[in-house]
């Protein structure tokens, strides 16, 4: 669906999905892009959904990076970021040339792989050294450019290097800020940003903020670990739907 032809009902659903994804992010620490990009294609074109999520998600990443800036360590993400910067344009341009039904099926597979990885809580080997950082960073760049779900490779890399929770909170938003800025610049170069899309970003931003605030409030009453399992079940169902 072209965003120019989106009805008010579709715009409301788009805003609610962004709010839901933001709520999931604030309660569990993950999942904004995964939830948003998985659900938005039911109401808008995949390429537009990815661009919208990148623009809105940048706001959250900047806020999180500033809040956890004392735990940010540039030395831990520099090689990841350099590799990702090189491969982001590959993902962006690939989304232009791959048929949307194939891209949606690929997205479904990626979502299911992430759900399986998170659910099984696999014991991962220690992977140190720059080659591994470049490899995981490159994978994150491609996924960021194509679907804005570059988080899983970075999370796996951090787990392999035994990052502490504080290091995750400080370093992940920093990586995503860099990647989002480059992805946005590439999408602008590709002509993906239009006045209509920016209007939709403005419309969705309050839902994003509301989701963050609601998640912070609910975190006092809801167990984040149990809610995370519910989200994984939801993502698994969405992933299967995308494959059909």
UniProtKB/TrEMBL annotation:
Its main location: membrane. Keywords: Cell membrane, Membrane, Transmembrane, Transmembrane helix, Transport. It is a multi-pass membrane protein. GO terms for cellular component: plasma membrane. InterPro entries: TM_pro_TauE-like, TSUP. The chain crosses the membrane at residues 12-40, 46-68, 77-96, 102-120, 132-150, 170-189, 201-219. Pfam families: TauE (PF01925). The keyword Transmembrane helix applies. It is found in: Cell membrane. PANTHER family: MEMBRANE TRANSPORTER PROTEIN, TRANSMEMBRANE PROTEIN YFCA. Belongs to the 4-toluene sulfonate uptake permease (TSUP) (TC 2.A.102) family. This is Probable membrane transporter protein. It comes from Adonisia turfae CCMR0082.
């Amino acid at each position: 669906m072209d965003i120019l032809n989106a009805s008010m009902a579709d715009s409301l659903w788009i805003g609610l999905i962004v709010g839901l994804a933001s709520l999931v992010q604030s309660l569990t620490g993950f999942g904004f892009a995964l939830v948003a990009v998985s659900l938005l294609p039911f109401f808008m074109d995949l390429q537009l959904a990815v661009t919208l999520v990148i623009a809105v998600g940048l706001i959250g990443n900047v806020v999180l990076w500033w809040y956890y800036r004392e735990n940010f360590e540039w030395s831990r993400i520099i090689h990841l970021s350099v590799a990702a910067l090189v491969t982001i344009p590959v993902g962006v341009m690939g989304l232009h040339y791959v048929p949307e039904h194939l891209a949606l099926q690929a997205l479904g597979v990626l979502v299911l792989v992430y759900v399986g990885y998170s659910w099984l809580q696999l014991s991962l080997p220690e992977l140190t050294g720059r080659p591994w950082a470049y490899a995981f960073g490159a994978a994150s760049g491609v996924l960021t450019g194509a679907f804005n779900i570059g988080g899983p490779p970075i999370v796996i890399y951090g787990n392999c290097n035994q990052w502490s929770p504080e290091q995750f909170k400080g370093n992940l938003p920093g990586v995503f800020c860099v990647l989002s800025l480059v992805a946005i610049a590439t999408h602008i170069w590709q002509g993906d940003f239009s006045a209509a899309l920016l209007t939709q970003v403005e419309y969705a931003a309050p839902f994003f903020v509301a989701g963050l605030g609601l998640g912070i409030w609910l975190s006092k009453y809801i167990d984040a670990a149990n809610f995370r399992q519910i989200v994984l079940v939801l993502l698994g169902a969405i992933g299967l739907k995308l494959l059909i």
